[in-house]
Amino acid sequence: MCLRLDHGGTECPMDSSSDEEQENGPAHVPAARSVVAVSRERIPIVYRPEYGVQFCGLQKLHPFDAAKGGNIYRLLKANGLVRSDEDIYAPDEITLDELLDVHTKRYIESLKWSLNVAKIAEIPPLIFVPNCFVQRSYLRPMRYQTAGSLLAARAALESGLGWAINLGGGFHHCSADRGGGFCPYADITLTVRMLQASGKGVERILIVDLDAHQGNGYERDLMDDGGVFIMDMYNYHIYPRDHSAKLAIRRAVELKPHTDDEEYLRKLRKCLHQSLEEFQPNFIIYNAGTDVLKGDPLGLLDITPEGVIERDEIVFRSALERSIPLVMLLSGGYLRSSARVIADSIINLRDKALLPTVE
């Protein structure tokens, strides 16, 4: 269904301030965070229907499954892991002030131009679409998902359960001043900064990025941050090939095209163990892209669904055994079968008692 702009609504959301202020870079005063309450009684899964990108079918011009989060959620409900919408967390839309904790005002202003958004979303026809449509139908869902990453991290840290999963987010190609690769907001950098400012003693954050692509966005943002250790395991023959950003990676695991389960899981076990022992983190951000699946048109690796399920189990088990809070973000995945694989993996984590309190 196409979205229609009301005749009376001509202003686009997310306006920022004056041209002079745009030159000043990101705000340095932390913004007020979401007031969504964290409770041990809720399942720490974060989702709301507004995550879905729907725009007159234009979303189909990019291989990304714009309905992936909703499809996973329906599968989890069908399996009984989630019984009602009240069991989980629904984020509010992230505010402009929150975005400016990391993003430059100039970058946020640039998203008012459909040409710029079309480049980020990799959907050329968006150039010709009024920006208010683009804001409502593409950027607003991404703002909800970005807020979901922050809320999921809070839930993992504050609920006492030690884990949370956002059924979206993982926009690892976006930095403070540049979007790309379908990633318009830097949710990973925002999550890092929120955790560091939380007052909860989060001093060493390990980012485990297992998306098939290098996470160049947050790597650029966190280049000189000694409180963050980046382990990035990716196909080095594909986008983005960002050699400058690579300098931020403390443990780079470069894979050749068509790497299979055996090699992939062996390298993961070894390098994850080394990263944990070396850095001794007290929080893990797990970017769990499923574009590693065999047949994915962009990832070009040969990991089976069983391999992805085992991969997620390795990461969650490593965190649980060390009592390290972990937040999982979905990131990339360009096969329609990705939603089923992710849902099966979450159910496997429950069945293996790796999701405390989920029966």
From TrEMBL:
Keywords: Chromatin regulator, Hydrolase, Nucleus, Repressor, Transcription, Transcription regulation. Its EC number is 3.5.1.98. The keyword Nucleotide-binding does not apply. It is found in: Nucleus. Residues 1-30 are annotated as: Disordered. It catalyses: N(6)-acetyl-L-lysyl-[histone] + H2O = L-lysyl-[histone] + acetate. Residues 62-346 form the Histone deacetylase domain. GO terms for molecular function: histone deacetylase activity, hydrolytic mechanism. It holds the Pfam family Hist_deacetyl. Interacts with HDAC6. Belongs to the histone deacetylase family. Responsible for the deacetylation of lysine residues on the N-terminal part of the core histones (H2A, H2B, H3 and H4). Histone deacetylation gives a tag for epigenetic repression and plays an important role in transcriptional regulation, cell cycle progression and developmental events. Histone deacetylases act via the formation of large multiprotein complexes. This is Histone deacetylase 11. The lineage of its organism: Eukaryota, Metazoa, Ecdysozoa, Arthropoda, Hexapoda.
